[in-house]
């Protein structure tokens, strides 16, 4: 994060607070969020899209994708920066409402929202519900009738553009569970328009996540606009939503296109395409999650054990492994796939830094492993640490703001770590860490055991 520096004696310092002090106060593992970094990225993202679309005489809206990382405070930071919030479950809706977010500023996603979730969303006045299937047209229309509301809806389509990091793939149809095909859109839109309790806003798509370039978004915008133009023959189509997916750097090899450049490129393509189609430029909305919250956070771990493992499968008796190339150094930390599932789930790459001190020792290649009973429990596949790294040292793994806490689990009955926000030399808990008692309390037999044993 931007507020991260090193003190003179080599300790990592965020917003004026040292890693050592944070570890002492809150323990490890610990998610440390640089609040000003989040607020700045949220504001800059909105400004980038507003500037780019204002240049072509159009309006934009930015929804923060809460699935990346949501808490009551985080929701408020987004709202204070002028962002709306994208939610995709009743739970995320509950957090947004608890934060006091105006329900009109919420967009509700999901390929299988329950009838109860739809009912709640409609009854509290959620701004937009994204219809993901033909089934949902009738379900949401019925809920809106029950609550005597006119519910605004978007229609999720597959643009056929599937983007992943460097490249994008454009196909006629995508084999995936989200949305409907572009060919189905005119009929679906007509059915929406036929429901007097629904108001049609436009099309929505999301082409993937951790995308480095602008090409996929541009291609997706072109494809959506062609259908958008056809839908205008039926009636008004005030908006279009191109989703999220803007990539961030996890390691020194990652080189994502800055959000400002993507915004300019997409705005230009949208403007050109609308001119070619002789239609008005709609309001164009986006839903970034990772690019706003990801870089803001690092996870602080303590080193437990260090192990040099011989590679190369030598079976010769007495073979030694002093050759660095034939040894892998496993540095194990006090967390793992329960607080960061991304390496195990997506083969995601992270980097690591010694956080509590300076060292002039020669760097060694290390693999950072967790404490779980699984060989895939790796946090950092390959990075360098000073060769004198030792048990008790603190390690920081940067860029763990997105899809880490939100994907955390209690695997092996490991309690989820706390989340703290730091700002201007102060730290405060955003989300409490769990205790073993928290985990035991959920076991229905726990109190029975407790009673008989006391
Ligand atoms: N809008 C929709 C409809 C989405 O499905 C998503 C993410 C976003 C916006 C936000 O995407 P972002 O800007 O954060 O890339 N767990 C995976 C990523 C899953 C993304 C799911 N949808 C990971 O950790 O890489």
UniProtKB/TrEMBL annotation:
Necessary cofactors: pyridoxal 5'-phosphate
Ligand binding (substrate): 290, 342, 346, 374, 403
N6-(pyridoxal phosphate)lysine modification, residue list: 67
Kindly give the SUPFAM superfamilies that the UniProt entry links to this protein: Alanine racemase C-terminal domain-like, PLP-binding barrel
Pathway annotation from the record: Amino-acid biosynthesis; L-lysine biosynthesis via DAP pathway; L-lysine from DL-2,6-diaminopimelate: step 1/1
Residues involved in pyridoxal 5'-phosphate binding: 245, 287-290, 403
The EC number(s) this enzyme carries: 4.1.1.20
Residue span(s) of domain Orn/DAP/Arg decarboxylase 2 C-terminal: 323-401
> Where in the numbering of this chain does the Orn/DAP/Arg decarboxylase 2 N-terminal domain appear?
46-293
Which InterPro entries does this chain map to? Ala_racemase/Decarboxylase_C, DAP_deCOOHase_LysA, De-COase2_C, De-COase2_N, De-COase2_pyr-phos_BS, Orn/DAP/Arg_de-COase, PLP-binding_barrel
Q: Which UniProt keywords apply?
A: Amino-acid biosynthesis, Decarboxylase, Lyase, Lysine biosynthesis, Pyridoxal phosphate
Q: What class of enzyme is it?
A: lyase
Reaction(s) the record says it catalyses: meso-2,6-diaminopimelate + H(+) = L-lysine + CO2
The record's NCBIfam families line, in alphabetical order, gives: lysA
Instruction: Please explain the role this protein plays, according to its UniProt record.
Output: Specifically catalyzes the decarboxylation of meso-diaminopimelate (meso-DAP) to L-lysine.
PANTHER family named in the record: DIAMINOPIMELATE DECARBOXYLASE, GROUP IV DECARBOXYLASE
User: What does the similarity note say?
Assistant: Belongs to the Orn/Lys/Arg decarboxylase class-II family. LysA subfamily.
The protein's assembly and partners: Homodimer.
The identity of this protein, by name, is: Diaminopimelate decarboxylase
Give the source species.
Leifsonia kafniensis
- Name the gene that codes for it: lysA_1
